[in-house]
Amino acid sequence: MAVLPTETVYGLAGVGTNLSVVRKIFELKGRPAHNPLIMHVLGIREAQHISHITPFASKLADSFWPGPLTFVLPKREIVPYEVTAGLDTVALRSPAHPLFRSMLMEVNKPLAAPSANRTNQISPTTAIEVLDEFGEDCPPILDGGICDIGLESTVLDLSSKKARILRLGPISAKEIEIVLKQKVETPSDTIKPDGNANKSPGNATKHYAPQTPVLLHKNLQSLIQSKEVSKRDVVIVPFENEIPSVEQKTKQVLSFSSTISNLEIAKNLYSKLRQADKMNPPFIHLSLIDGEEGITDAINDRLIRASSQNPLTSQ
Ligand code: AMP
Ligand code: MG
Q: What is the pLDDT of residue 294?
């Protein structure tokens, strides 16, 4: 078992066909057995060894692999049911990070790699954050610096006739629709207030959340006008140049990005949430961000999960 960088977040990686390794991954994370792992492979050829590739999957792999798009496909026998949480489907993707890819080449086996955090904590995007998570129990880490994307992959269910996004991520529904030439269902079409927990067990509403309670405002303007922000609270505004607009309420203001870029917000999102959490305020205040769909929807999805008061827990 080792911690490896990917372009999304750091992963706790081990040979996914080795049962004792898979059990160790679950144990170290404290991950419930009903939350399946994502398998990582070099490409479509290796994917064929562990899953039944559909025409949609091979089309999408041509366009988006290696990259942050995970497919859920019918599994082959070689994949232990421990990996898939008893499901007949397996989640798999081809990561783009060169360090992860050289490890895949070296090992020549699929690597199961959930995010390298303890269950219910925020995904790590730097090696130091991984060390913070696991302390003395930390497996060796390959330090690849800060993850480029900073948000977990898009999870796309291709196991039935209709393609369906189970987890929003860096690859948008629109981009997938252009390749498939058909409509793709998104969680907002299907998700209920308590999450579509059955089909994608790790997709519980409360997920990716700091320890500190988070209050999420509709937009920055309503945060600024809110009477709920106290001087002891921490506010995280989207962009650095917006910091002065909330300094009358509290001096503890952070920003997700120093440039006007939603991609930069995604990259820094989890580190900033961790930083705010460490300041130990009564509340962290955030606001939904504006922008084109795609990465903006994925960011807002994580902000909603970070702020959910719903006691549902999972990964
Ligand atoms: P993580 O490994 O922390 O990035 O989380 C993996 C995500 O993929 C979770 O949301 C899982 O529920 C989801 N997932 C993994 N395998 C499957 C599967 N066979 N069917 C549906 N969702 C899955
Ligand atoms: Mg995770």
A: 87
